[in-house]
Design goal:
The structure is a single chain. By secondary structure, the chain is of the alpha+beta class. The chain has 2 domains: 170 residues, no CATH class; 95 residues, no CATH class. The chain contains 10 helices and 18 strands. The strands form 3 sheets. Strands 2-1-4-5-6-7-8-9 form an 8-stranded antiparallel β-sheet, covered by helices on one side. Helix 6 packs across helix 8 and helix 9 packs across helix 10. The radius of gyration is 22 Å and the shape is globular.
């Protein structure tokens, strides 16, 4: 389980070190940095998949993501975007910067592409010399051997590649491999579509689907998989709790599966195309949270969108139950959802202080211990 998440110089997150629990709720007013915190976690996941540079480009490049508020650092640290996490067993941190310093290489068309300046994998919750397992500085990587010594990996890493994607090796760098696979297994759901042309409204070829797609396109197959190989009783209970007397049915149209919702008092079931945005979205969250293949970390971004307030208590119950099988993080600005989750969750309320995102009630002495790897 992740116990700490750390971010530095990312948008409004000048410096943020958060404790995490089995179920963590990130809340706060609009503009306090909730979305930035969510994106920073996705950037960490992109680094493990070799897509961090492209992900930063989609946000406008490194210049548009760096902290630009009062007290901005000078020199090398002004162009240092740092992300990291730690758990009881492993920790990982990465430091992005400009090529050759803040000015980059003006002769290149890619002078503003971020580079991996340093990375580190360590054992335990805090980075310290004795716990360090693998370390990257610039193009060079060294890995701790089984006898406690160090060996340098041959060949220099390209500046735009992470050691997680290039060095992970079951024989020579098993700890890097373990961290990479752990991050790659994180699961994110963010603003799934429920409009009239949403993929979830269409009948699609059905295959056994233990993990719902990020856009919800295979919703019918995912729900049927839960019914056949997962917790069918929990599925029926979740639907009935939200829509009393209702039941999800999946029709087989040749090789295609189509979602139906049978509701009390109606003479025929409603098709996915007929469902309201809120009803469809609740069914999407049901499929995501009742997955027969739970991830180590499941992150939901604003799951309350389009939901009627009456649906928030049954959604909260689904989230609480999911947190028994996975570590769950929920980013929300819905106070009723936060209240419903509060008894079982670690609540982190973000606030803005002089342009910086901070945690309400958390001082420097209250945050978890954290150290960044050196360049």
């Amino acid at each position: 389980m992740l116990t700490t998440l750390a971010v530095e110089n990312y948008r409004s997150l000048n410096r943020l070190v958060l404790p995490l629990g089995p179920l963590t709720v990130i809340t706060g007013a609009n503009g306090t940095g909730k979305s930035s915190l969510y994106r920073s976690l996705r950037l960490l996941a992109d680094a493990a998949r070799g897509g961090a540079v492209a992900a930063l480009a989609r946000e406008g490049g490194l210049p548009s993501t760096l902290w630009a508020g009062p007290g901005k650092a000078a020199g090398r640290d002004a162009a240092a975007l740092r992300l990291g996490f730690a758990g009881d067993d492993f920790g990982y941190a990465v430091d992005f910067g400009y090529p050759g310093g803040a000015a980059g290489h003006p002769e290149s068309f890619f002078a503003l592409d971020p580079e991996f300046k340093s990375e580190a994998v360590w054992s335990g919750p805090v980075l310290r010399p004795a716990a360090l397992l693998s370390e990257r500085k610039g193009p060079y990587v060294r890995v701790r051997s089984a006898d406690g010594g160090w060996h340098r990996r041959t060949g220099a890493l390209r500046a735009y590649d992470s050691m997680l994607s290039e060095v992970a090796d079951p024989r020579h760098a098993p700890d890097v491999l373990a961290v990479r696979e752990r991050i790659r297994a994180w699961r994110f759901y963010d603003h799934v579509r429920t409009d009239a042309h949403a993929p979830a409204r269409e009948a699609r070829i059905g295959t056994r689907t233990p993990v719902l797609a990020g856009d919800g396109a295979d919703l019918a197959a995912a729900l049927q998989t839960i019914r056949e190989t997962g917790d069918a009783a929990a599925l029926d209970a979740a639907v009935d709790a939200a829509f009393p007397g209702s039941r999800v049915e999946i029709d087989s149209l040749g090789d295609r599966l189509d979602l139906r919702l049978r509701q009390h008092g109606l003479l025929r079931p409603l098709t996915a195309a007929e469902l309201s945005d809120g009803t469809l979205r609740y069914l999407i969250w049901t499929a995501a949270l009742l997955t027969p293949r739970p991830p180590e970390l499941l992150v939901l971004n604003e799951p309350e969108t389009s939901l009627h307030p009456d649906l928030l208590p049954p959604l909260a119950n689904l989230i609480r139950n999911a947190a028994r099988r996975s570590q769950v993080m929920v980013v929300t600005h819905a106070h009723p959802l936060t209240t419903a989750l509060a008894p079982a969750a670690h609540i982190v309320e973000l606030v803005k202080e002089s342009g910086r995102t901070a945690v309400r009630g958390q001082g420097l002495l209250d945050e978890p211990a954290w150290h960044w790897p050196k360049r």
